[in-house]
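Notebook p. 47: complex prediction with 6-O-phosphono-alpha-D-glucopyranose.
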Amino acid sequence: DASDIEKGTYPHYMLKEIDEQPLVIRTILSKYQNEFGELSIDEKIRSSVIGADRIYMIACGTSYHAGLVGKQLIEKYSQIPVEVHVASEFLYNLPLLSKNPLFIFISQSGETADCRGVLVEMKKLGHRTLTITNVPSSTLSREADFTLYTYAGPEIAVASTKAYTAQMAVFALLACDIGKLKGLDNDFNPLKELSLAANAMEVIVNQKEKIENLVWEFLGMTRNAFYIGRGLDYFVCLEGALKLKEISYIQAEGFAGGELKHGTIALIEDRTPVIALVTQQHVSASIRSNAKEVIARGANVLTISMEGINNESDQFTVPEVHEHLTPLVSVVPLQLLAYYATLHRGYDVDKPRNLAKSVTVE
Ligand code: G6P
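Predicted complex, structure tokens below:
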């Protein structure tokens, strides 16, 4: 049938979508460049972002995780304070809003009801709204003042992969574009660095077998798994854990390395899998020492590091990319881990139980 044709030779949409990520990043780069090869974003969007004294990002699930990274990029390169909120909680715990806020809704589908609930209320208050979405004709796109597209192409698998990396790429471009307009002196060329990140992603998707083999050793029989990281790696841990739990049903949590000792370390038993992400040079010593702490308590640690700060004993190493773009790259082995762990257990990768691709009820 039609869906089989779209899947091509792939056994599952998720694998196809993981593989598409380098192409998606390259597509985004071409869509946000003018004929002179310069970064180009709609003028109205530019002025709405520059005019904001604070940005409130609203999202759910994987898109929320992209927002956590997006905040870091925007604060660093555009110098605008950003808050990231889970959509379903925002109206209950309404923060004290700034004088001139901009609301950014991050949603692959553009249909998530929890986001729409916030959008409707914020529009009533007269606030400006921007949707970052993968679906041009979606509700959130139609109802917000402005839309930025993520150009990832249709995402069919319930577990989001390429939409997440696309969202972060768009944030990197937006952050630098605004920074440039504000005359900030950023020594970061997002066009160049994102294209290097796309190449790095390609290297990783060509090493699937390596990841598949790690699944046997680390996630074979387990009922739980922990992901630890610091800085940007922590946010990717949250996403890696979400990927694993939503499709393989292994109970998984992402933790900030420093928080382990405040509770989670009590859960470490003999052979408990702990996936440690090490892509941030400034915290690599501390996260490696966290890994040692859990190893001392019996954990089976799988270290995923980045070239340049890797150790020989690390089980997987991703190519070196700019320190602020590592999430785009380090998430790929985590997506593949979740994929193969699910295959290994014989579950439906593309259609996990109890979950929907887009949740249109609050
Ligand atoms: C559902 C999906 C998740 C997704 C979340 C937000 O729960 O299963 O994969 O991250 O909705 O979706 P959105 O379309 O708003 O990004």
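Notes: DSSP finds 14 helices and ten strands in the chain. The chain has a mean pLDDT of 96.
Next step: compare against the earlier run before touching the bench.
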